[in-house]
Design goal:
Length: 207
């Protein structure tokens, strides 16, 4: 990582110890805060390192959402978060699960509707509204629930848009996987090495 930073100057670090359960939300929030203060952009993408996507379809879908929201919203620029949505779900109460959330941590039985964490899009104005809620709302345990669910809802200004076929769950190693990939804007590959990621990226982008 140090060599990558030295060569390309493209890595940003923050001064805290990363922890999936306790610090993932914090990492995402401080990154978003840095991004909106550093860049002026129509939208920002939160994407994990194990997600690959079709660039052409990504721009088509993103522009379609943003243009539609611009027409129907009185706010300029529009405040929206979009991607694959989870609707009417609740915390995982299985103690051995990676996604386990205790009742002490989150007493509610339902989460607000939210987008899938590995790959979603936010407008800059939406990020700013989300960040304004942080001092007043306890930090939810799961990053995607926190940003696109709890803080979004608390703002009272940010819309949630669900995009069909936004992201495939994961690589399943099954027959016909090439046509499976083409159904989606992105694929959450999970635990594949860099060589496999490049193959999938080339297939998604017709190379």
């Amino acid at each position: 990582m140090q060599e990558e930073a030295k060569t390309h100057n493209d890595i940003v670090t923050f001064d805290f110890v990363e922890d999936y359960k306790k610090r993932m939300t914090l990492k995402t929030l401080v990154t978003m805060n840095w991004a909106v203060k550093t860049f002026q952009s129509r939208f920002f993408v939160k994407i994990d390192e194990d997600v690959v996507f079709n660039q052409r379809r990504f721009h088509q879908e993103s522009n379609a959402v943003l243009e539609a929201k611009q027409k129907e919203s009185s706010m300029v620029p529009p405040q929206v978060i979009f991607g694959r949505c989870f609707l009417d779900t609740g915390p995982d109460r299985r103690p051995k699960s990676k996604y386990y959330v205790s009742e002490n941590t989150y007493p509610g039985s339902k989460y607000p509707n939210y987008t899938s964490g590995p790959f979603y899009v936010l407008t800059g104005a939406a990020i700013e509204s989300v960040l304004q809620q942080v001092p007043f709302v306890p930090v939810p345990p799961m990053e995607d629930v926190a940003v696109s669910g709890t803080y979004r809802l608390a703002s009272g200004q940010v819309d949630l848009e669900c995009v069909d076929n936004w992201i495939g769950d994961r690589f399943r190693g099954r027959k016909g996987y090439r046509s499976f990939y083409k159904n989606f804007v992105g694929i959450h590959t999970m635990q594949l090495d860099a060589g496999h990621l490049e193959v999938i990226w080339r297939q998604l982008n017709g190379m």
